[in-house]
Amino acid sequence: TGAGISTSAGIPDFRSPATGLYSNLARLDLPYPEAVFDISFFRQNPLPFYTLAHDLYPGKFRPTIAHSFVRMLSDKGLLLKLFTQNIDCLEREAGVPNHQIVEAHGSFARQCCIECGAPFPDNDMKEAVSKREVPHCHAPDCNGLVKPEIVFFGESLPEDFFKNRALPSFADLCIIMGTSLTVQPFASLPGLCADGVPRLLINSERVGGLGSRADDVLLLGECDAGVRKLASALGWTEQLEALWKETNPMKSNVETAPKKSKDDALEDEITALTKDVDESLNISSERVAQIREELK
Q1: Lowest-pLDDT choice from 36-45, 88-97, 100-109, 244-253
Q2: Which of 74, 9, 86 is nearest to 247 (CA)?
Q3: Are the C-beta atoms of 36 and 89 separated by less than 8 Å?
Q4: How far apart are CA 39 and CA 251, in angstroms?
Q5: Annotated catalytic residue: which of 99, 105, 136, 138?
Q6: For the chain, what is the total number of helices (H) and then of strands (E)?
Q7: Under a CB-based contact definition with an 8 Å cutoff, are residues 80 and 171 in contact?
Q8: CA nearest to 87, candidates 125, 44, 58
Q9: pLDDT tens across 109-146, in order?
Q10: Annotated catalytic residue 105
Q11: By three-state DSSP, how is residue 218 classified?
Q12: How far apart are CA 25 and CA 52, in angstroms?
């Protein structure tokens, strides 16, 4: 999964023109947008990152229906492993077990000193982020900069990624959601699936050469809408919506209809218009019959 499964939660993706994260960082006065995640720049000036972290920190966003779908796969014993590029921890908040998640680019789940490697308390980190302050290591004689275990440019991917990288070759089905598949080595994962194994892309556009194999399936559009279509085809709609409802922090008993995709909304409009036309034609036919009867 990539950032596209979190955009409906209010978290911007990174590369979309105009709306992406990198397109909206002018307020941080960076030499270039990606500098906010550059380890060399962070060492010189960590404040822009913590200004951004204040907006992105976990606890402010609700998991999407796509996150709940992954949780449902886990509950049904169907999830071999979730590889995600996302740093927002929404998979965890949706209830996906930690041991089934490979956060290829790290996340806000843990933090440590970039000098001595000492862990940093969660509560202290949360307080620093809420105040837009730069936290420093508590270890004696250190005082190094503290950073969430997010992979910055110039850093290696977590060992957990390389330890599990071969798992797609054992999969019966590979689902790719909400990613541009442009960043390596993450982008190579779908290609590790064995020939004949179906690969399902739920995404706004075709990416990563998906669609080149006979068993590839492309479900293009919004991720939430695609997940709902897949759940409907499997007969899982009721269970999926119930799981997603559990993630609502308001815990309201009021049922709300799921937001319809653009295609479904257009289809409803066409159906309504067709109904109006049919009714108009029916009225016209009845009026013609009435006039004929009066002329007899």
Answers
A1: 244-253
A2: 9
A3: no
A4: 40
A5: 105
A6: 9, 7
A7: yes
A8: 58
A9: 999 999 999 999 999 999 999 998 999 999 989 999 99
A10: yes
A11: strand
A12: 9
- Rounded CA-CA distance 214/195 in Å is 9
CB atoms within 10 A of CB 254: 5
Is the pLDDT confidence value at 258 over 60?
no
Integer Cα distance of 66 and 75 in angstroms:
14
Tokens 């009021």, residue?
254
The 3-state DSSP class for residue 181 equals coil
Q: Would you put residue 42 in left (φ > 0), alpha (ψ -120 to 50) or beta?
A: alpha
Region of 260 on the Ramachandran plot (φ > 0 left; ψ -120 to 50 alpha; else beta): beta
DSSP notation for the chain: --GGGTGGGT---SSSTTTSGGGG-GGG--SSGGGGGBHHHHHH--HHHHHHHHHH-TTSSPPPHHHHHHHHHHHTT--S-EEE---S-HHHHHT--GGGEEETTEEEEEEEETTT--B--HHHHHHHHHTT---B--STTT--BEEEEE--BTSPPPHHHHHHTTGGGG-S-EEEES----STTGGGGGGGSPTT--EEEEESS--TTTT-STTEEEEES-HHHHHHHHHHHHT-HHHHHHHHHHT-TT--SS--PPPPPHHHHHHHHHHHHHHHHHHHHHHHHHHHHHHHHHH-
Tokens linked to 54: 């204040």
- Dist CA 73 CA 175 (whole Å): 11
- In angstroms, the Cα distances linking 11 to 66, 78, 138 are 14, 27, 31
Return the CA Rg of the chain: 24
